[in-house]
Amino acid sequence: MNNKFIIVIFGGLGDLAQNKLYPVIYSLYKKYRLLNCTKIISTGRRPNVDKEEFLKILEKSIKTHDDSFFSLFDFVKFDLEKEEEYNHLKNMLSNFKEEEFIFYLATPPTTFETIIKNLGEFLKSFPNKRKIVIEKPFGYNLYSAQKLNQLIKIYFKEEEVYRIDHFLGKETVQNIFGLRFSNIIFEGIWNRNFIDHIQISALEDIGVEGRLGYYDKVGALRDMIQNHLIQILSIVAMEPPCCINEKEIRDEKIKVLKSIREIKREDVPLYAVRGQYEGYLIDENLSQSNTETYAAVKLFIENLRWDGVPFYLRTGKKLKRKETSIIIVFKKIPGLFSKILDCMPQEDIIGFKIAPENKIILSFQLRPLGGSMLSCPVSTSMEWTGPNIEAYETLFMDIIEGDQSLFIRKDEIEKSWEIVQPILDFWKDDPNIPIYPQGSWGPKEAEELIRRDGREWRYIDG
């Protein structure tokens, strides 16, 4: 980016800013990617934090002392609900005539509307270019997402809005795109003729970890599937774009989302299951809660490429281990081989492991060394591993450069809510929630969901 710019971070004392944003901004600074950054204004409402105390927090966040980096920062005590606070910010920004403004909302979603309204009003008197970055969750249901989009449209153009999903910045997720469209051997088999089904999982071995105030109102379906996993699905299933640019890529993703079969309310038990880990109420000191800590959903994409291929999406907490992955399971070899072999070869697999490390695995069948031609084949893997580059660094650089390819467009966010809304409505009126043991793979109902189709859940490392 050749133009000068200013970054304004709302929620500058929060966990997101301290654990992700400041380290990422410092990494970009050390790589000389912030040469045109004139100022970084961080806001927070803690009464006992002044500029000096803020710099101590910043130093702890980036794990070093760097006066030249610190000199970029101003800290402003800021109550998001008070109009006079925005007037003070307006006066500060009026000193910058040429810079582009980047506003980052690292705040709870309940504050989004207030910030957008106040920013939008005072920016009417500014000729400066501007961008606004909005974290998840973007709404709590379809209606609230539509309402928030309508508000944004009043004050900002769509090309100024960056709805962030940090999963899209992860190296392995972006390599789905690279593997498919850079290699004809993969794109040629990326369809219903060869692929049996696809599993997209985000499994955690930890619990809520201090996020109860947010999590108990949201649950696993909203927290992970509605945004992260459905976004990954759209990348896995999209058609090749005519051009590598933000419009064409996002156009292809929305076509996928529009092709997903509607789940009718009465059919929800056939397509979705939930669960809550044993001890959730005790761990979080709750008297009662119907919030799911596990969710699994089966989706179908009704187009020529994917007709009849199920996509299984699942996420959960307090499970056996942490694994975020996409597993492409190919169809079994024709049954005639069972006549000449003692056992059937396993299905071929392409696996993308996103966490806890980056890994791509191609698992296929070969004759074992020293074995006979007709002995059972063994599974052989080829792995690609790469550095675990922080997703927020990729996304932050895209924001600065104005590339929206890895950000969610208005129609995408609303369509993803539309997909899960019948499930949310059904679960809201159903008091029965299965309980699963901590350290397991989730509720037995999730196993039944996939076994009814003659399949089983897969894991990249066994």
Please name the defining characteristics of this protein.
Dihydrodipicolinate Reductase, domain 2; alpha/beta; 9-stranded mixed beta sheet; 6-stranded parallel beta sheet; Rossmann fold; 462 residues; globular; single chain
Description of the molecule:
This protein has 462 residues and is α/β, with parallel strands linked by helices. The chain has 2 domains: 5-135, NAD(P)-binding Rossmann-like Domain (Rossmann fold); 168-451, Dihydrodipicolinate Reductase, domain 2, CATH 3.30.360. Helix content is 37%, strand content 21%. The protein is built from 15 helices and 15 strands. It has helices at 15-30, 51-62, 67-70, 83-93, 112-123, 142-155, 171-182, 184-187, 212-237, 246-258, 268-271, 280-283, 391-401, 410-428, 444-451, and strands at residues 5-10, 37-44, 73-77, 100-105, 130-134, 161-163, 195-203, 272-277, 294-300, 310-316, 323-330, 349-355, 359-366, 378-385, 435-436. The protein has a 9-stranded mixed β-sheet with strand order 14-13-12-11-7-10-9-8-15, with helices on both faces. Strands 3-2-1-4-5-6 form a 6-stranded parallel β-sheet, with no helix packed on it. Strand 1, helix 1 (15-30) and strand 2 form a beta-alpha-beta unit. Helix 9 (212-237) packs across helix 14 (410-428). The longest helix is centred in the middle third of the chain and has 26 residues, at 212-237. The model has no long low-confidence stretch (mean pLDDT 92). NADP(+) binds at residues 45, 79-80, 136. One of its GO terms (cellular component) is cytosol. It catalyses: D-glucose 6-phosphate + NADP(+) = 6-phospho-D-glucono-1,5-lactone + NADPH + H(+). Keywords: Carbohydrate metabolism, Glucose metabolism, NADP, Oxidoreductase.
